[in-house]
Amino acid sequence: MNILLVDDHHELRSATRELLEDLGHRVTDVADCVSALEEVSSRGSALDAVVTDIRIPGMSGTDLLEALLAQECDLALVAYSSSGGDERLQKMLLDRRVFFLAKPFSADQLHAKLDRAGLERRRSAAAGVGEFSAPGPVSLPRSRDRSSAASRRPFSDSDRSPASRGSSSLGSPASRERVSRNRFVGLAASVMLALATGLLIYFNLPQAPSLPERSPETLLRGARFELDSPLGELQERPAELVWQRVPKAKKYRIQLLDVEDAVLWEALLETPFRAAGAAKSLGRDFIVMALPLEIASALKPAVVYYWRVEALGEGDATVASSKRERFLMMPDLTSSPSSSSSSRPDPLGGSS
Asked: How many CA atoms are closer than 13 Å to the CA of 120, on its beta-carbon side?
């Protein structure tokens, strides 16, 4: 298949392209939806499918899918995201016009979703021209063929009784009624047989293989993983950082950021790790890192902070990364920095 891949995240786009090419597809990738529309417009029927991320700045993946459907493009459409999408995307999924893939995903899951989207594309194309589409030719029984041929034969003098023969070139009213009735019965039988055959073929179409259950081992190279805490508005000063474990990660790079994305503090955490007991009940493994006391003490109430984590593999290559998450300590914090820390320089670059 000739596939157009759309994703603003360079690492994930490169990893997904590699997966598609390993599956034998020819891939063109772009970083935004406007470029994707231009590519579809210029290449036309040379494309077979569009695979797009949903959360793209500017024109979103959902906007792109709506534009392609409005243009009635003959393309298989697959969308992926770490969240379920909005009501517009849900409607397209319910109408089976778009097929959804949750991140992170494996090569088998991507292959199966493309197969389903391609099958629906072929079915929609057949329905769009108003003709019945079947895997092979459908022939009627010989007896039905003979009766239908007889019903189509023009009525002549030889079909009338000797008494009525020659009285009229159109035959008697009873003969004309019998011929009309035979034609109607033949036509009705043909329609019923075609409908029955179509239903039989539809309900016996091969189904896509069931998808394996997602696990941490299916994390895609360059994909994102979850941060657990701290998140949102906090009633107390954070003491630890918790995030999702990434299989085969050798190290984690943790960064604390300000609102302008400047790095306030950075740390490198190596194996071994300890699991968070409360998080294990969710069915996933998490990593817990104690936040250094001098860093926790330097955090100020009513100031927005961000943090993110990168998972590093062999040679410190990035295996996966988290989203940038926000947290804010409320001004009425009951806990306060220790008195001994008040005289120290602010490790985050401000005054204590």
From this structure: 20
Q: What would the CATH number be for the domain defined by 2-128?
A: 3.40.50.2300
Beta-bridge partners for 29: 5
- Measuring CA to CA, which residue among 253, 315, 322, 324 is closest to residue 11? 322
Domains 2-128 and 226-343 equal at CATH topology level: no
Report how far residue 145's alpha carbon sits from residue 159's, in angstroms, rounded to the nearest whole number. 20
Nearest residue to 193 (alpha-carbon basis) of 153, 129, 147: 147
Q: Hey, what amino acid is at 300?
A: K
> For domain 226-343, is the CATH number 2.60.40.10?
yes
Strand partners, 287: 243, 275
Q: What is the DSSP letter of 63?
A: H
pLDDT in tens, 212-232: 444 444 444 457 788 988 999
Residue 83 in tokens:
């969240």
Residue 339 predicted with pLDDT over 60? no
Residue (of 38, 89, 43, 82) closest to 65 by Cα position = 89
If one compares 11 and 207, the residue with the highest pLDDT of the two is: 11
Q: Find how far residue 148's CA is from the centre of its chain.
A: 49
* Domain locations in the chain as residue ranges: 2-128, 226-343
Confidence of residue 128 (pLDDT cuts 50, 70, 90): low
Confidence check: pLDDT of 137 > 50: no
Task: State residue 132's pLDDT score.
Answer: 32
Residue 285 buriedness (CB in 10 A; 0-12 / 13-18 / 19+): middle
What DSSP string runs through 64-129?
A: HHHHHHHTT---EEEEEESS---HHHHHHHHTTSSEEEESS--HHHHHHHHHHHHHHHHHHHHHHT
